[in-house]
Prior knowledge:
single chain; alpha+beta; Arc Repressor Mutant, subunit A; 2 domains; two-stranded antiparallel ribbon; 6 helices; 6 strands
Amino acid sequence: MPKAKRKRRTTPGRKPPVRGRLVQRKDSPRTAAEFFAKAARFQDQWARMTHVISKMRADGVSLANAAREFGVDPRWVLRRGSPTLKKNTNGRYTAKKSDRLLRVLFVPTEYGTREVATRDSRQASQVAEYWSAVQKYLQTGDRSKLLKFQNKHITDADGIQVRLLTDPDELDRLGSAGVLSFESLYARSA
């Protein structure tokens, strides 16, 4: 005679935990306004967490090593960035191909740099590649990598399209004003 499965006890009014599926917390920021409404410490840890996940994805490093490099507790990364991670059969976490975590980035416009919140890691990577092309142009005058971004845009978290600036005259003007530097890719933390 087969054994009957034991029913799991739950507290009244509380749902049992979902097994095998990691769910993003409801208090995670989804817009730039929500992000900047959080405490400065949270903003800093959130930015570090997105760096950890990007490092895991790009270089294939472990969660522990990436978290150590960026000075954040791996448990915090699991708590906040869990939808972007998957647990392998060996118990190690790896980053999924892309994620929907909020990243607030700077993008150059005709009027200077602008903070753009994006919820797509692929768009954040595109912005990083764009910044690399801008820096190459400003340092060497080589426009070849900028041509790839002509008439391109990114879509922010609110669905607004932001055109990527490729006009050499405008980039020269912003560069000589000191507005464009690669360190300014990620937005302020407070």
